[in-house]
Specification:
single chain; mainly alpha; two-stranded antiparallel ribbon; two-stranded antiparallel sheet; elongated
Length: about 450
């Protein structure tokens, strides 16, 4: 990977309308030529398996999808499906036989823009957890030490908080099936039928709390498959769409975002500071050219021009050169207040907080935080749960606190050391590029300023 010619992954914009396989392939094609911009240490597999250090952990990825790109339901569903696949194949063969692999009939296969899927066999689907298994018990790597503090855990509040609708799960599933034109009931004797119904009511049904961006045709095909079986192959079509979106759009954008070490106010401040340095250099050059001073005084324009171009080019790529000297990054707005929870919050507690009981991988309870109205609400930890409220975060306390924070404090906010060595290396290359480009521009400009004849007007 070249130092002078390294480029961050290009931003991949969301395509309009519901997702299908052909659109996901567009994502993949767009990012194919930029694969070298994402080192193997920051690959999709390493991120979702939580093998990357901050700021590229699984929780960081989830935070980005919740707070920045607003499509965390894709990763939430993907994580659940990996765990569900492992759990299903851990059943005895006699129970697995109750839910045979699904083979879509020709009549309901998606047509047009939606690529048809081949019939499924009795073999494990190609998205089995053997390749992309998510390890929720993994204690390392640790989260950023200066992140959010762990609030008290209120299990009862959490359990009541996930009741996002007055209708039962069964009613929600029946309504979704009715809209898809499916009249008969599912086989209740099949394993994990109750869990499948919860997934439908949370991700597949229209207007569900974490509704996936699926077309009506895709949703109908998946619901039809789930009426026949609870085998993981029934999710094959939606899995391909979700994973294609995560790999081709969400993950490259997340890596691009993670490389930046400054928040938006800081980057804008540094960028404007660079412009101010350049303007000051031009004014100084004009003054010295118009004066009777020796032309060698014009060399003082060099440091102003160099600093201006240097920090301006780095800021254009999302980096603050000053913060970079310590290999640090500005805390995200949701990390600056002690009202969030993270994956490692169950194991790392502040001295002023009560310790909470760790949860199993199949039943993860979130941390809970005070609401504005004095009640309780879930925060960052809820995003890692399969079933819960929607991913809206306007109720979280940090939103109001950050809005009221003075602009100067937003610019010079607290920083935390970047633990991921690969991210530090990529930042080093970008800053080195800004140094070289600034020198290439500043040297000829300074030479031209010195060579211009004096006018003696002043």
């Amino acid at each position: 990977m070249s130092v002078l010619f390294y480029r961050r992954p290009d931003y991949v914009a969301k395509l309009p309308g519901p997702m299908n396989l052909s659109q996901c392939q567009i994502y993949v094609d767009r990012t194919q030529k930029h694969r070298k911009a994402i080192p193997a240490e920051l690959s999709f597999e390493n991120v979702v398996q939580n093998r990357a250090l901050p700021p590229c952990t699984l929780q960081d990825f989830m935070d980005y999808l919740v707070y920045v790109s607003h499509d965390a339901e894709n990763l939430q569903f993907w994580i659940w499906l990996q765990r569900y696949t492992a759990k299903f194949y851990a059943l005895p063969p006699s129970e697995q036989a109750l839910s045979p692999p699904y083979s879509a009939p020709e009549a309901i296969q998606p047509t047009g823009n939606e690529v048809s899927q081949p019939p499924r066999t009795t073999e494990k689907p190609r998205f089995g957890v053997s390749e992309y298994e998510v390890n929720f018990d993994q204690q390392e790597p640790p989260m950023t030490p200066a992140g959010a503090m762990s609030p008290q855990f209120d299990k009862q509040s959490f359990l009541s908080g996930i009741a996002t609708t007055n209708r039962s799960v069964v009613d929600s599933v029946e309504d979704a099936n009715a809209q898809a034109g499916l009249k008969w009931q599912s086989f209740t004797i099949q394993p994990f039928r109750a869990e499948i119904n919860r997934v439908i009511s949370h991700y597949i049904a229209p207007n569900s709390p974490r509704e996936l961006n699926l077309s009506h045709k895709t949703r109908s095909a998946v619901l039809h498959a789930l009426q026949h079986t609870t085998h993981p192959s029934a999710f094959a079509l939606v899995h391909d769409i979700v994973e294609g979106t995560l790999r081709g759009q969400s993950h490259p954008n997340f890596i691009r975002w993670s490389i930046c070490n400054g928040n938006k106010p800081r980057v804008l401040f540094v960028r404007n500071s660079g412009i101010a340095h350049i303007v000051a250099a031009v004014i100084l050059a004009i003054f010295l050219i118009c004066s009777a001073a020796s032309r060698w005084w014009r060399l003082w324009c060099f440091p102003l021009l160099f600093v201006g171009f240097d920090i301006g080019i780095a800021a254009y790529k999302g980096l603050c050169v000053i913060i970079h000297t310590g290999h640090s990054r500005a805390l995200r707005p949701w990390e600056q207040y002690g009202d969030g929870a993270s994956l490692n919050s169950f194991d790392n507690h502040d001295e002023d907080e009560e310790a909470t009981v760790g949860s199993s991988t199949d039943e993860v309870y979130s941390m809970s935080t005070p609401r504005k109205d004095g009640g309780k609400t879930t925060s960052r930890g809820i995003s890692m749960d399969t079933f819960g409220t929607s991913n809206a975060f306007d109720h979280e306390l940090w939103v109001d606190k950050y809005k009221k924070k003075p602009l100067l404090r937003r610019i010079f906010t607290k920083t935390v050391w970047i633990q991921n060595e690969t991210v530090r290396l990529l930042q080093d290359r970008i800053v080195m590029q800004s140094h070289v480009l600034a020198a290439l521009v500043t040297v000829p400009l300074t030479t031209l300023i010195v060579a211009l004849p004096q006018t003696g007007v002043l």
